[in-house]
Design goal:
The protein is α+β, with helices and mostly antiparallel strands and about 170 residues long. The protein is about 25% helix and about 35% strand. The protein starts with a strand and ends with a helix. Bound molecules: coenzyme A. Coenzyme A binds next to β3, β6 and α2. Coenzyme A (COA) binds next to β3, β6 and α2.
Length: about 170
Amino acid sequence: MQVKTPEQSKTVLTDMVLPGETNPLNNLFGGELLARMDRAASIAARRHSRRITVTASVNHVAFTKAVPLGSVVTVEAKVSRAFKTSMEVFIDVWIEDRESGEKTKANEAIYTFVAVDDIGHPVAVPQIKPETTLEKERFDAALRRKQLSLLLAGKIKPSDASELKALFK
Ligand SMILES: CC(C)(COP(=O)(O)OP(=O)(O)OC[C@H]1O[C@@H](n2cnc3c(N)ncnc32)[C@H](O)[C@@H]1OP(=O)(O)O)[C@@H](O)C(=O)NCCC(=O)NCCS
């Protein structure tokens, strides 16, 4: 089985916030950011699997900081863990100060993608070997998040969520 690193899937999308993409407070509309994150994450999942990939779930989104009109926004996505046919993708969103160029973390999200064949059937993906400390932390917690997502979707029973149960022991 082929093994790849998170870095090999890294996808960076940089764009501006334009009028028409904002809410009445002139900050980036949440749905617009979700779409940008979905696009970057989908490319990261495709780079990892070299397959067609579909969004299976959005596991977590934190809109921590508003993104004002005119901001330069960088969306960075990397596969954090691969399972059999699914991949967890971690997305970090940064905004850039106009004068200093300094980047501030604005949001983050975690999406799950599934690699599929031409008729939409799930297919196996390469495994992943995390390298940095952050990649290792994200890798280690990913099984717990997968079980939580499957539990919330009604796809597994609480008794099957072994990693989640271990948290409460
Ligand atoms: C995602 C999809 C391919 C899964 O198909 P399925 O028949 O449920 O297939 P499986 O049960 O074999 O699941 C496939 C993988 O997805 C994972 N998965 C399915 N639902 C999940 C969820 N809610 N959260 C996390 N993982 C999930 C399974 O655990 C499995 O992972 P693994 O093989 O790595 O262990 C199917 O539901 C689909 O095509 N959905 C529509 C996708 C789409 O159109 N997205 C865009 C939305 S507009």
